[in-house]
Amino acid sequence: MKADGEMAVVNMAKTLVIVGFGPGNATAVAEKFGAEGFSIALVGRDKDRLAAGVSALKARGITASAFQGDAAEPGEMRAALDKIRAELGSINVINWNAALGSADGGDILTADPTAVRRVFDVAVFGLLATVNEVLLDLKNAGDGAILITNGGFGDLAPEADETAIKLNVMGIALANAAKNKLAGLLAQRLKGDGIYVGEVIIYGAVKRSPTDNGVDPTSVANAFWDLYRSRSNLRARV
Question: 148 φ, ψ to 5°?
Fold first, then answer.
């Protein structure tokens, strides 16, 4: 209750937190879930990119806010999540879109071991730490979900290994494989709590402009929405 006797406004919309916001997949997911009535919390390191993302979403009539935080730093993520709850309410869905570039741990035989570890800090350990931070929210939601963006370099196939070496993304390939396993473990561990875990695995570079021949990020967003709605399959491939 406000001091003047008026009832405080409570945000009843579901909240989706996108960790690792940027153009492409994260933007498409924000637009898709926002169009379906979700409030969107964007988390990332780049303040200007976050601000631009919020502005674009609001122009579409979507409730959105930005929160700075490094996906590899549990303390920063904890602070960001606390701010999200204070502004948007309890968290219903996490989309883990955080990843490092190909130069980080590109060749695992010549890279600085700390660079390879940093890839895992973002893709795997950061995800696990964040899940622990939002676990109670997701349990209380009744239909909470963890949606994980992953890449095809993690496939356990010689062709995937050959491509990862050729493109100098061996560190990312290792992290993708670990993240794939983590998705399966979380799905089995959390299904009894009513928390759904879904993973979209992307094969190829994501389209950055209408003239690109890459994967359409809209297809990725639609795949996440279908997984979230059906809650029956663990993985979709795009």
Answer: -115, 125
Determine contact, residues 129/54, Cβ cutoff 8 Å.
no
Q: What is the CATH number of the domain that holds 56?
A: 3.40.50.720
* pLDDT digit string, tens, across residues 157-191: 999 999 999 999 999 999 999 999 999 999 999 99
What average pLDDT does the segment 65-76 reach?
96
Q: Measure the CA–CA gap between 88 and 11, rounded to whole angstroms.
A: 6
Q: What Å distances lie between residue 192 and 54, 87, 231, CA to CA?
A: 35, 29, 13
Q: Which residue(s) pair with 139 in the sheet? A: none
* Residue ranges making up the domain that contains 212: 15-237
How many separate domains does the chain show?
1
Dump strand ranges (E) for the chain.
15-19, 39-44, 64-68, 93-96, 145-151, 196-202, 235-237
